[in-house]
Design brief:
The complex is a heterodimer. Chain A is mainly alpha-helical. Chain A has 1 helix and no strands. Chain A is rod-shaped. In chain A, 24% of the residues are buried. Chain B has a domain at 7-200: P-loop containing nucleotide triphosphate hydrolases (Rossmann fold, 3-Layer(aba) Sandwich), CATH 3.40.50. The longest helix of chain B is centred in the last third of the chain and has 33 residues, at 437-469.
Chain lengths: 41, 624
Amino acid sequence: MEDWQSVAAIATVALTVIIIIFRAKNGKGGGGCGTCGDGGC
Amino acid sequence: MESSQETIALAGNPNSGKTTLFNALTGSSAKVGNYAGVTIDLKHGEFHTPHGRKLTLVDLPGCYALDDSSPDQEIARAVLKGDHEKCPKPDLVISVIDASNLERHLQLTLQIIELDIPVIVALNMVDMAEKSGLRLDPVKLSEELGVPVVPIRADKGKGLIELKQAIAHPLPPASKPHWKTGDEKDRREFGLNVAQIAARRPDRQTSSSSDKIDAIALHPVLGWFCFLGIMFALFWSIFSFSSIPMGWIESLQELLVGQVEGAMAEGDFRDLITHGIIEGVGAVVIFLPQILMLFFFIGLMESSGYMARAAFLMDGFMSKVGLSGKAFLPLLSSYACAIPGVMATRTIDSAKERLVTIFVAPWMSCSARLPVYLLLVPMLLGGSEGGVTQAAIFMAIYVVGTLTAFLVARILRGRLGPDEVEHHFMLELPPYRLPQWGYIFRHVLDRGWAFLKNAGTIILAIMILLWAASTYPKSESDDPAEQLAHTVVGRVSAAIEPIVKPLGFDGRTGTAILTSFAAREVFVGSMAQLFHVEESDEETETRTHIRERLANETWADGSKMFTPAAVISLLIFYIYALQCLPTSAVVAREAGSWKWAVGQFIFMTVFAGVASLIVYQTITFFTG
């Protein structure tokens, strides 16, 4: 039972890394404080 | 031949209500405020005339004249003259005039008429002007200017149909100026004459309710009490009114953790979902009510007209630090977020003053710091929330950031030297108005949504990575402390502990600070994760529990880790450090060089570290 959980956890982490790299390459990295709601934030 | 879609530009003095009219015509929700300088860039939208003709509408930054030199006013001038590379010369200009200030607002309208563009005058806030005793005659005004004049009330949507009908098809020809074109003196005299004919003032000057309020709000002594009282009420409300919705978020969080635990056996994936995601992201999301509250109050002050009074009060103080009142509004915006604050520096004419303002703007405590302060401040008071002392500490935090910004501005301004051309600052004090509730609530919801979106993207990603870094590589040991020491986080913590220990922090706190360089509020989630020690199997971690855990944390020698000195040191670090990548990107763009952004980042980080070190060591020295 623990095995599939380890695989799922590692897959989630790997997917997160891939999404971050993909977004950074497309110039969408950063994200920002998100609270200003204006333009680049 | 079918012509392309016609462009209509909205022009006018700052705070004449252009953006409110833009929103009313296009159905947009662009930022408006009852003070000057809110619009700093071009905004595009579309609307239809009553006959179904689709038109492009461009909202220009407000300007008093077409010969001013600040970056935002250059944009307005370039568009009106057809020199803007991204915006065609408008086919018609709607010149928005505040009916209460006809003399001054007419000057810009006359200059636009000189440009040989068809003009329609939208006479805004007519009913308010008449309430103050003015007798307005729009027909006379139209005859004198030779252009259509439509009385409107943009915030109530009155007169919009008449305004749309005035945009006839084909568009009316440009009016011929009745004064000597290009002659400023002649134009000014003509404007004054027209204003006298079209707007007759009552013989006896009566003081309006705005004047009566201003007698207190702008009083050299009472005004400051008033200002501080409003700020104090703001901080007290943020603490006091948020506890109920925070309780709901906590309950939701606990319910989610319970559901996941009920559905899944113990294991890594369950741990990632409960401790990594729900607890980490939840630790940040729990502060949503306070964020909403802050933006509600900022909206209230902007919309009512009090923000302009705050700028007026600060003007004298600003000149002492070498900045003009023009720098205050960008700095004020930075309390919400440094990004619109930095962008708002476009209203400053002097390039040197603009650079200095950009440099110090991130020291105005932005809303992203709020979760950090909200976690730490109650720790100074034994964990209790709400109350006068807490509000006073909060005010002190904001004052420390602001005073440091002014001090550094003074030093920098002195080093950059005086301007070659002297610039003047003119601040319009608009009449107090009832807040536009619809706009405020929409604005608060937008900001709240942006906060949640951020929690669901960047904070979620960092929490997942942090969970992995604090879980892998795994050790054979069953002792949670040994297991953590074996992980990436454990090793990073051990490496940086000697650097951060003189500031009062252990390696885990140092790691939490490192994770928050992408966005400050990540710190709260990181602390929730990194100080999660499996001493008991209680899985329903809550906000209070995070503080309790931190309060019970000890060093290896058994001494308390989060002493008041360490908490103050952390607060000082977060007041001063520039931990926001998008701010650096915007600074680089606005200052025209990455050197400024990098220099600012290094300076502020070093400043924060040194200030924390001095504060921690001094307090420890005196308290033992």
